[in-house]
Every structure is written in C-alpha cells, then in structure tokens.
Amino acid sequence: MITIKDKTFVPFIPADAIQERIQELAKQINQEYADKRPLIVVVLNGAFLFAADLAKQLTIACEITFIRVASYAATESSGQLKQILGLNESIEGRDLIVVEDIVDTGFTLHEVCKQLRDKQPASLTIATLLFKPTALKEPLDLHYVGFEIENRFVVGYGLDYDGLGRNTQDIFVLA
Ligand code: XMP
Ligand code: MG
Tens digits of per-residue pLDDT, 122-147? Predict the structure, then answer.
C-alpha cells in the first residue's frame, strides 16, 4: 500500500508481471519490424519507464524520439485541443511506433495519431502499456497492449497522481 497526498493506492500489477509482458511485446515488435527501421515516438511524461524497458528489449535497428502533448482550452464547442510538442524530425515515409503509458478515453492518442498521419508516415502503430476498454470513446487501433484494465485510476511505473508516484517499479490502483 502507498499513500500519495490524500489518496491510498494498493498493489495492482507487480514489477515482474510488467517486465514479463514487456518482453512479450518486444518479441512481437522485433518480429514484425525485423526488416524495417522504425521511429519510436514516446509520449512523455507517463511512458518514460515503459519506453525505456521496451527499448532495452528491442534487437531491431530503431530510432527513438520523444514528444509531449499539450492540452489547451479552445472555444467552448470544440473543447480541449491537443498540440504535439518536440517532434523535430521529419516523419514522412517513416514507420512509426507511438509508445504511450495508458489509453483511457482515447482522445489524446486519437488526436496525436491524426496529426502524425497528416505528415505522411509510411505506417503508424500504437504500443500502450495499459488500456481501459470500457472508458474508450474514440475508435483507436491499438496494436500492442500490455494490459487491459478496468476503469480505475492507476499510478506508478511512470503514471502519476498530481505529479507524484511515477518512480515505482509496480503499478498501484486507487483503493
Ligand atoms: P485519454 O483519455 O486521452 O487519456 O486516453 C490518456 C491520458 O490520461 C491520463 N490518464 C491516467 N493517468 N492514471 C494516470 O496516472 C490513470 O488511471 C489514467 N487514466 C488516464 C494519462 O496521462 C494518459 O496519457
Ligand atoms: Mg500519458
């Protein structure tokens, strides 16, 4: 059990299960990209540990880059817009693997992928460590999913509660 600020979290996915699953995902990516040289696009901050552990298991030639997604309030009708920050290289003609920590409603990745596809990559797949299927509101094709989880708030292993809790080896769920 851990306490972050006013909230209590209990163990949910232990470190060894996370690492075991990452090995499986990496094996799949190694096979499917054996004759390619993908550009791995890591969505910061949450995906930093997942991306690091995944990358260490990749035996293919690949490049790794990092983006942030900034949300800003637009007009009342269009709600929150998302802007990609930090993508400096050309992605035209590249095989992209977008690495995310968690897909909840899917709004973030839906918008990110739309903006990336506008720049004409050769292909785009998504690798997310966690996925909450019952929370999904935007259709998303998720190619590599670590764990499907119920619609509860999780922290740890990159995921935060109010900026805290990213630095654990295990994933915890709100009690
Ligand atoms: P959407 O709804 O756009 O959300 O798919 C994706 C982003 O929302 C954050 N998120 C969480 N962060 N525990 C967290 O620490 C959670 O359970 C959780 N659910 C969603 C996260 O930043 C993700 O990138
Ligand atoms: Mg995130």
Answer: 999 999 999 999 999 999 999 999 99
Q: Per the domain annotation, does 78 fall within a domain?
A: yes
Q: Examine residue 2 and state whether it is found in any structural domain, yes or no.
A: no
Flag whether 167 is in a domain.
no
Give the span between the Cα atoms of 116 and 91, in whole angstroms. 8
How far apart are alpha carbons 128 and 143 in whole angstroms? 8
**Nearest CA among 43, 83, 45 for reference residue 67:** 43
Domain count along the chain: 1
Query: Which ipTM value was assigned to this complex?
Result: 0.94
Q: What is the mean pLDDT of residues 142-154?
A: 98
* 170 part of the active site: no
Domain enclosing residue 88, as ranges:
17-148
Per-residue confidence at 82, pLDDT binned at 50, 70, 90? confident
**Residue 104 Cβ contacting ligand 1 at under 6 Å:** yes
**CATH code for position 111:** 3.40.50.2020
Q: Ligand 1, residues 109, 159, 167, 171: which to mutate, most atoms within 8 A of Cβ?
A: 159
Full-model pTM: 0.95
Q: Whose CA is nearest to atom 4 of ligand 1?
A: 104
Catalytic residue among 16, 35, 101, 104: 104
